[in-house]
Amino acid sequence: MQEMILMKDQVAKLFTELSEEYNVFAPIKDNGYIAYRKITNVEEIEFDYFNSKIPPKEILFPQMEVLFEYKTDGKNVIEIEDRKDLDEKNLLFGIRPCDAHSFVLLEQFFAFGNYQDEIFLKKKENSIIVGIGCNSPKSTCFCTSVNGYPFQKDDMDIFLVDLGDKYLVEAVSDKGRELIQRFAWLSKASKADVKKGQELAKKAEDLITTKLDLTNTSECLESNFSNKIWEEISENCLGCGSCSFLCPTCTCFDVIDENAQYENRGRRIRIWDTCQFCLYTLHTSGHNPRNSSIERCRNRVLHKFSYYPINYGLIGCVGCGRCIQACPVNNDLREIIKKINNIKTKEEENIIA
Amino acid sequence: MKDIELKNQEIENTIKDLAKNLLKDRKVDMIIGYTKGTVPLSSSPIFITREEDIDKLIWNNLCYANLAKYLAPRGPILYNKEGQEIKVGIIAKGCVGRAIIHLTVENQINLENIKMIGILCNGIINRKRIEKEIGEREILETSVMGKNIIVKGCDFEETFPFDDYMNELCKKCKVKSPPKVADSCVGECLESPPLIEDDFNDISDFESKTSEEKWDLIKETLSTCTRCYACREACPMCYCSLCFVDQNKPIWFGKTTDFTDIFAFHFNRAMHLAGRCVACGACSSVCPMGIDLNFITRKLEKIVKEKFNFTSGIDKETLPPMMTFRMDDNEEFMMEED
Q1: Residue boundaries of the structural domains of chain A
Q2: Is A234 a residue whose pLDDT tops 70?
Q3: Nearest to A238 among B224, B233, B248 (CB)
Q4: What number is the ipTM of this complex?
């Protein structure tokens, strides 16, 4: 399909035409940082941004979410009220390629095996992703090491390229094509526009300086479960959850029943949980199989770079670099990967010697 | 007055020498210090056991972590594989020293195993404030020049006055190097327990607010909390083996991000820190959402100072108010509104 042009001053018009039908989520500035929020006014949108502090996974998988509410007669549950908002349509505007790919990874988890997570899957199905290429990736970005690139559009429905005062618009999926066709007022892109888009893509890819070799990392992790390297890697870890709460691919949650006993009602909620917390693997007996930061740090790395590849054939990291920026003690994931890859080399050296 | 970066360089050289000697003379088995971060506005705690790694040690105004955290009971740092106690040398700015002294008072560490390498800290940069003000531009390099913090990106350079852009708590700091306790300190330290005079005028703005205004400010400040507990985990005084907020038999505190639950966590934590907080500001420095808890910390400090005339982590002989009682305590304050 022919690429189109959306002038930046036309976004308001687009928003007006879409906001009836869709909940529009877009990047805004919230307490000093970028966040994807449901917008009511197009003026709120932040057009100049790297990426959000908290990944847009929170749109489809919020930190706290009500699964259902119930009423009781004081003793037994007499009525269960399911979510009514799952059929609402969502439009996710301005999603970066790494985060768009995270939705694919999240779906792997929420649709795995016999247990289909209806809440997430329904919301995902009713969402249309309008992604945007990264003209200027950050120095902590490493998407090209995890099968992505700054202009990767495969995981989006519509792909935008920021050309300054306008966007180059390309339909990627059928869903996206259908939507674009509704806007007859979009002008066609010129050859020069398309060429400029290609140049920006090339330039962006050159800007990514972190190159991690993940070819053998999965095997290396598997065979080094008990390696001493984990003591070194976890040494300064404080055991907080900032890496996983800011991670676009972390999916763990805890389920809690909140019972308002005297009001004869309650709700079942889920909240984000993380393998970095001491409570995460604590058994009722008091035994904790992951009793220290050594096991917890190891689990986080193995989950993304070993279990994901084994279970889904995909790397469980999208290279957004959020954990690198957020870690209170600067326990840099890039350095961790390098240390792990280095084990292999050392062993090979020993064999040769 | 010498330039800050020159002083930093001197401090760095001194701590390297002292640390090297401690290791060489087998006075300690390990040095806990700071090393250079991989991203701007950061630093990373490091554990050194070999002399050849001493050069990895750094000192600058971004050494925000309170290293005493690693000495508190939850960390296994003070024991070797055989479960024997080891001796540790620790780079100690004033608040690290205070934390060590207070942990000693609370019988949580054995001061005999610790050698503080004392330094005269000249304040920690408020990294989250700078991060927010730079906004959507990428910081690639930061340095301190003269009286300014220089922040550089690929197409910008900004200058922030150091005195204004250091942590709010550092601005009011009266204990810039660790108070001397027995022979636990080498390097820069305060010879006798300092007399702490504090006007607390930095929170007069907060105090002059009405209850509603205070509530609004607290709400606004904490609204973005994700409950990652980085504040708690960075706090040297948060060493409970199971935090009140993690107790689940029964669940005492809601675990959600509803404001009531967020508020309950932060204010119960604050209350547990009354007379214990050493005002290091690590909680605010590590918050991924840039939440600055300093006004809560300062208010707490003021209450304890006014009601009990106590400052934490200054000397190891005076018991903190929450660890002692007096028969003639009239408890009048409990009736006061504040």
Answers
A1: 4-207, 217-352
A2: yes
A3: B233
A4: 0.92
